[in-house]
Amino acid sequence: QAFPLPSLPRKQPTVLVVCGPAQNGAIGLVCARHLRIFDYEPTIFYPKRSPDPLYRDLTTQCEKMDIPFLSYLPTEVQLINDAYNAVVDAVLGAEGEMGEGREPCAAILATLKHIRIPIVSLDVPSGWDVEAGSSGGISPDVLVSLSAPKQCARRFLGRQHFVAGRFLPYDVQKKFELNPPEYPGTECVVALRAPR
């Protein structure tokens, strides 16, 4: 929804999915799989792979779908700008404080801050404080909040904001006093902010 195939500027719908070592990285792997199913051409950069069996299984699924993995992230930003239509930021997410200043996350964030193609952040933009918002992190064009928008989403100034949370059980919604949006038809994602 964030970047429909016909709207992409290049003939090939290439997307770079940058995955961190924790939960948000696993979500990035799932995202790459979905992108492949919907005819995009994802490439994954996953430098610090988790030993967790679930994450290993997600990696194997991506490999079996012939999704290529980069062995390094080019520090020459123009190479990324020229090769891809967009970048999916699945580096840190809500667990950002665990790795923001450590490698390889610090180098990844330094590179992502300088690219010109659109960035789609999953849940919490990498480098952002979950509650306070940006503190020198990246500036995504699109934010996809998972379950519900986090407090930091109030400071999001990008083009579009989506929430993916239809899967939340009613008791969880009630416990956390969540007021989810209406999901039309069978949609699992809904736009909270119209495109600018």
Automatic annotation (TrEMBL):
Extent of the signal sequence: none
Any Pfam family matching the protein: YjeF_N
Sample GO molecular function, one term: NAD(P)HX epimerase activity
A GO cellular component entry from the record: mitochondrion
InterPro entries, alphabetized: YjeF_N_dom, YjeF_N_dom_sf, YJEFN_prot_NAXE-like
Domain YjeF N-terminal: 1-180
SUPFAM superfamilies referenced in this protein's UniProt entry, alphabetically: YjeF N-terminal domain-like
Name under which the protein is recorded: ApoA-I-binding protein 2
Gene name as annotated: Yjefn3
